[in-house]
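Technical note accompanying the year-one report. For the benefit of new consortium partners, we illustrate the data format agreed upon in the data management plan: each record pairs a sequence with a structure-token string. No post-processing was applied to the example shown here.
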Amino acid sequence: QVQLVESGGGLVQAGGSLRLSCAASGRTFSRYTMGWFRQAPGKEREFAAAIVWNGGSTYYTYYGDSVKGRFTISRDNAKNTVYLQMNSLKPEDTAVYYCAASTGYNANYYRESGYDYWGQGTQVTVSS
């Protein structure tokens, strides 16, 4: 069982930045594929970013179209933590942000169904 705990959400003005963190349990974190999804009020959960383990120490990063160029996903395997750096935030980025994990390579990194474990979510609110 993998436990995920997000932090770093909050209220920020448009154009500002936030960094979300997700701490994971487990001894093989370096082999997890990690993702960030978000869900705005009244909308479906949306893929934001993923960092996919591809064997050894190789990782690939992917982004949803709405965040590409503004958000950056990264990980620190020594700390069992994945980050989402969010820059140039817009009011439409307001959502609950969820961290997700799957063990090993994950070709379905952009689908909710591709992940086995989820955090409780952290609220991000961007004011105009």
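Partners are asked to follow this layout when depositing records. Residues 50 and 109 are 6 Å apart (CA to CA).
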